[in-house]
Amino acid sequence: MGRRVTARQPERTPHAPGLAFGFAVPIAILGGLVGLGGAEFRLPVLAGPLAYSTRQAVPLNLSVSIVTIVASLAIRSQSFTLAPVAPFAPAILALIAGAVVTAVAGSAMHGSSARSSSCCWSSASP
Amino acid sequence: LLLVIGIALIAEGLLPQTGLVLLPNNVAVRVVAGVLFGLGIGLVSSLLDVAGGEVIIPTLVFAYGADIKTAGTASLLVSLPTVAVGVARYARREAYRREALVQTVAPMGAGSVLGALLGGLAVGLAPAAVLKVGLGAILIASVWRTFRAHQPPPRGR
């Protein structure tokens, strides 16, 4: 609980853009293939080689997830048709409805718990 | 739970036709169940700050009988608004600094677009069994990592 900011200086090293690009490619191949955002694989990269604290890494990671998801959807609609998804439309809409409700509720919770680190892999961050 | 799902997916991938579908083919039941599943998925997504695909895909495969490729596409559709909520939340809290956006998000995004294009093109070619086993392995790997992160001295399993 102590709020000491010990080991990790805010800017330890430059966050090498080439490294970010290099790691992103294979992760997104996997994500694009299976249908994932790939966030759980990028987090260790952001927090490891790219030297972000977990608190900084999580929002960055999420924004890259969006890019991956949009790109995957775009390519899937070309390479492979979206038609088989149609019968599942009611289920998909229901899932979206439920997921957005708790995502918004969860975001309110995050907001009220202010700056407490939210993520699970972050034993190292304050 | 993820471990069980991971094993189930691998088993399903290896056994060619099991066709396990948990929900009856009734639109009302499916929609109500979908909202309930969705509530859980949104919770997982916002607590762990991930897109939630590893939970969404098994839900669609086992509860609704979707094939793995369709489930992948559907998962992306469900993830998109869920993740958008998360990004909006962080943007409101000004969690994005210009420097990090330029140095990391831009190149990572570019790499991700390239990777997603390659992965997306491969979906048409890859056999479904490979995808199932792959996703199962990913789930088990995530469980393993989370488990180790929570218990610094690894105890095995």
Write structural notes for this entry:
- The complex is a heterodimer of chains A (126) and B (157).
- By secondary structure, chain A is an all-alpha fold.
- Chain A is 61% helix and 0% strand.
- Chain A has four helices and no strands.
- The longest helix of chain A is centred in the middle third of the chain and has 26 residues.
- With 157 residues, chain B is mostly helical.
- Chain B contains six helices and no strands.
- Chain B is globular.
- The C terminus of chain B is likely disordered.
- Provide the structure class of chain B: mainly alpha
Q: Strand share of the residues of chain B?
A: under 5%
Low-confidence stretches of chain B: 152-157
Characterize the largest beta sheet of chain B: strand count, sense, and whether it forms a barrel.
Answer: none
Sheet/helix structural class of chain A: mainly alpha
Q: Which consecutive residue ranges of chain A, at least 5 long each, have pLDDT under 50? A: 1-11, 112-126
> How many distinct beta strands of chain B?
0
| Helix amount of chain A | 55-70%
Major sheet attributes of chain A? none
Oligomeric state of the chains present here: heterodimer
End-to-end Cα distance of chain B: 14 Å
Please name the two chains that share the biggest interface, counting residues whose Cβ lies under 8 Å from a Cβ on the partner chain: A-B, 85 and 92 residues
Order of helices and strands of chain A: HHHH
Overall number of strands of chain A: 0
Number of helices of chain B: 6
**Rg of chain B to the nearest angstrom?**
17 Å
Mean pLDDT figure of chain B = 77
